[in-house]
Amino acid sequence: MFLSQTDKHLSLWLRLCTLISATILALIIMFLLAESWPLLKHGVLTQFISDESWHPAQRLYNILPMLSATLLSTLGALTLATPLGIASAMFNRYYAPSFLASGYRRIIELMAGIPSVVYGLWGLTTLAPVINLWHPPGVSLLCAILVLAMMILPTIALTADSALGAIPVVFHQTAAALALSRWGTIRHVLLPLAKSSIGAGIMLATGRAIGETMAVLMVAGNVVQQPDSLFDSVRTLTANIALEMAYAMGDHRAALFVSGLALMLMIILLAGLAEINKRSS
Amino acid sequence: MLKNRLATLLIWLSVILISAVFVVLVLDLVRHGWAGLSLAYLVDAPLDAGRGGGIGPIMVSTGLILALTISVAAPLSLATAVFLTEFSSKNSVFSGVIKRSLDVLASVPSIVFGLFGNAFFCVYLGLGFSILSGGLTLACMVLPILIRTFSEGLRAAPDEYRLAAAALGLNRAAALRHFLLPTATPALIAGLMLAIGRAIAETAALIFTSGYVDRMPDSLMDSGRALSIHIYDLSMNVAGGDSHANSAALILISLLFMINTLSSKLAYHWMHKRITCL
Known about the structure:
The structure holds 2 protein chains of 2 kinds. In chain A, 77% of the residues lie in helices and 1% in strands. By secondary structure, chain A is mostly helical. Chain A has a domain at 74-238: MetI-like (MetI-like fold). In chain A, helix 6 (141-165) crosses helix 8. The two termini of chain A are 33 Å apart. In chain A, 45% of the residues are buried. By secondary structure, chain B is mostly helical. Chain B has one domain: MetI-like (MetI-like fold, Orthogonal Bundle). Chain B has 11 helices and 2 strands. Chain B has helices at 2-33, 39-43, 56-87, 93-106, 110-124, 131-155, 159-167, 172-200, 204-207, 227-236, 242-277, and strands at residues 46-47, 52-53. Chain B has a two-stranded antiparallel sheet with strand order 1-2. The longest helix of chain B has 36 residues, at 242-277. Chain B is globular. The chains are: A mainly alpha, B mainly alpha. Chains A and B meet through helix 1, helix 3, helix 4, helix 5 and helix 8 of A and helix 1, helix 3, helix 4, helix 5 and helix 6 of B.
């Protein structure tokens, strides 16, 4: 690449800024490791799953109940949001009359823009009391799943929508020429074509659900326990950090940073999966 | 045939369900929050932990945090985006690594940004709980969004511009200044709007960085409470704060709606211009 003197200077500056941008991720991982070090240096990682319970005052740091709350709420939210999100996308592309499609897409975009703290507020003041009537205490795993599902649905719907929109028109024409029904076309021609992009959207939504803090913190009840039913209160990893960071000192603080590391690990695993998904398509 | 009908039915039902939930959510917010809204609410200081008074200082803190976030993140992102699109080849290892790291950064949970911001800005750099720490933490968070939208904007500028600039003997810096950046401006603004929307909605990353203090901040080194944190605090920690939490939520949503509308208008305008100039 030929560069003039001015361009060489500019290029150098730009490269420096780029380096700074790229360093942030490394800094985050470094600081998470450094702050967790007081606990990690003992080398007994099993303590985070084998301690009797989560009682920082007694130096017991079992994060399993929180980890399972995170995974269960994410799984629940995905089970609800995936079919609904894909149905939304199919509605926009193939079922809606044109005046409805743009309006409905706008609704989904607005849902995507609502801040998590507002979802939390609504879940706490409207949804939780309703669940409480059915089965106390209301603030529960179920409430967290419902609120999370609402939050990740737009991600799945919008990515599936653009994935379906990117399918070349020739596939529609061929399906029509074969006299396939509308559902037959979608099920056997269009969905298989969009599969990997829809999968990427679902992974994005999974990451969002795992990392979500405020909404879950406000509606899940925050009791550290293995839930026996959907109506039990739970505390996720993220909520635990938000609740205890304010007063945590020493090893307790380190334990919270360890849970931060665990979150990062899950996110990086997901990113790896997304990469494999992208390569294989 | 039956399957076809059933699918149509199910899809319409899901769409009706989702729309109904959305409408209920918005109506609830408006119903509970509307009564508390007034001009005085926007400018007054909060009284009695937010049960009374307004959100004046909170709006100021929110504005300061946003301004800081954007003024740090925007130049850095623009430089990175220009480097990635104009000054590095597609297959270079360096830019590959950087893109990968930015992709991961984009999916880091906000609470982890909060942990990092607390450890790095508040403790390590000694900035304490301050608007400065909060703004810098959010700057790290919106960086990947800005870089992505900026890069897309630059990449959308037709290659003819680059060739024409080269044919005129302009160096790359001049080509950027006179052709590429002006062409990409609407996309740059749309990206900024997106980042502002993301930053203004953020709560978890701010709890341990900019803090809870609801007084009017005197400087960037003071702790300042952002609007989203105010909503959280009122609904979780203040008994009887729900109606004011709803009012604050209504204001936050209206701000976001304005930002969202503005950015989609700009994006539309930009697409339109591109189509007519082709």
